Amino acid sequence: MQNQPSSSYPRTPEDDDLFSSSSVRFTPPPSMSMPRGLEDIWIGSRRFSSDHPAQPAENRRSDTLGGSMSAYDGSSGGNNNNNNNNNNYRGGGNNNNHYSSSSNHNSDNSLRDALVLQMQRQIDALTNKVEDGLAIARLGNQVVALQAEMKVQAAQLEHALSVREQVVHLQNQVVALQAQVAPVQARVAAAEAHARLAALEAQVAQVGPLQEKLSALEAQAGPVQEKLSALEAQVSPIQSQLSTLEAQVSPLQTLLSALESQLPPIHEKLSTLDATIPELWSEISLVECKKVIPVERQVSDLVAQLSALPRLQIDAGEWSTPWDWRTPEVRGSQRINFSKPFAAAPHVAVSTNTLDIGNNKNFRARVHATDVDALGFTVHATTWAGTTMYKVGVTWIAVGSPP
């Protein structure tokens, strides 16, 4: 079993990532010149090239570290037969060199480890140079952008200076125009003052007639003021009434809103009732045929019977005895005359409506009518001697034939 070579240079995850299967191409900006020897570089299995596209996997040879380290060959691919011991080491399955002894094998391993360490250092140096080149390229782009921005700012500054010169020139012109306008303004002010003075003199000449008109208006203002005061006195109760009406309107509006909210269901009920009206009319017609017509006939018969009956005259009234009516001077009887005479003596009925009695146990009272004729009757109120009664009220009614 062949021994694997050991390297004194420790491997890190960054080294494993550096020797991955992907390729990265570095293209410097036009202003940056690449150092000689960096135009086309493979770092591990990553290729940095300034003028060549990345080579496919089948056109390069890449073996694992610890077992191989190959340089890029643009034509031969994986089966490279070049036996250059300084640049190309082939540790794959197609190696044509065979080692005959273990000593040679160990020396080759040591040499290989030294070459690997040296190449690793070169690779690190080249990687740093590439990163520096990328940083320089970015700085160059930033410098170009700053130069463009400075040009724009310079153009803006020149424009601002030009505008400032124009503003100063215009300000000088304004000062000159103001110096020319000052005397003209003084003349205009004098002319306006003269015109105002003339207008004031004309108005002063009209003050006399205006004063007379003012006196006449003041004389007329007295009655007008009185009328105005009277109107204001009338306005106050009107305003109070208006406030009262407004206070009454608010609940009415609330009620109106409530009624309006009830309108839709009422309309729905009306629609339902309208739909049932024909059916109701048919039922009414049926009821009219079955019940109303017989009732109307009965009513007609009753009216005929009532018409055949004799007419009646009714008269009614009230009477009461005076206080202490049982004395000899006062009788418990009274003649009652009808309001209208009857054709003959009517039927008379009397009853008590008031009894003013004392606190005793022996109570006897009686009312009755006598001497009934077509013009009236006599009402009587009687009691026993042992009954203390102070007043009796009588209600009567008479029913008979009219004259």
UniProtKB/TrEMBL annotation:
Q: Report domain H-type lectin positions.
A: 333-399
Query: Could you tell me the superkingdom of the organism this chain comes from?
Result: Eukaryota
Low complexity compositional bias: what residue ranges? 78-109
Q: Which Gene3D superfamilies match?
A: 1.10.287.1490, 2.60.40.2080
In this chain, composition skew of type Polar residues spans 1-10
A Gene Ontology biological process annotation?
Answer: cell adhesion
GO MF entries: carbohydrate binding
Q: Where is this region: Disordered?
A: 1-109
Q: Tell me the protein's name.
A: Fibrinogen-and Ig-binding protein
